[in-house]
Write a structure and sequence with these properties.
100 residues, alpha+beta, binds zinc ion
Length: 100
């Protein structure tokens, strides 16, 4: 990835969480094809909202916690390196839009 302008990303809820608590969203933009994820909300007692996020077709499962901007976490490499990532940003956007 270049250091120039980051590609614009969009997140879309493909399937809102159903009775089983599992929903599907996709992230477009960035390199390559759209990435599909499942999400399942987890109890979160330390503030914010917690989600288990599973990237389909890959083994990766990330635990994402969305709280205040300075109090969100994700287990992905991007967050470890930069302190922000598309998972926190995307789920935060869906929460603000009251889709989650
Ligand atoms: Zn992340």
């Amino acid at each position: 990835m270049g250091e120039a302008a980051a590609p614009a990303r969009t997140i879309r809820l493909v399937r809102p969480p159903a009775d089983d608590g599992v929903g599907v969203f996709r992230i477009d933009g960035g390199e390559g094809r759209p990435q599909f994820y499942t999400l399942r909300e987890l109890p979160c007692e330390i503030g914010g909202r917690g989600f288990a996020v599973h990237r389909l077709g890959m083994g990766n499962v990330y635990h994402v916690r969305v709280g205040r901007p300075d109090d969100s976490t994700c287990e992905c490499l991007g967050f470890l390196r930069w302190g922000r990532c598309k998972h926190v940003a995307g789920l935060g956007a869906l929460i603000r839009q009251k889709q989650l």
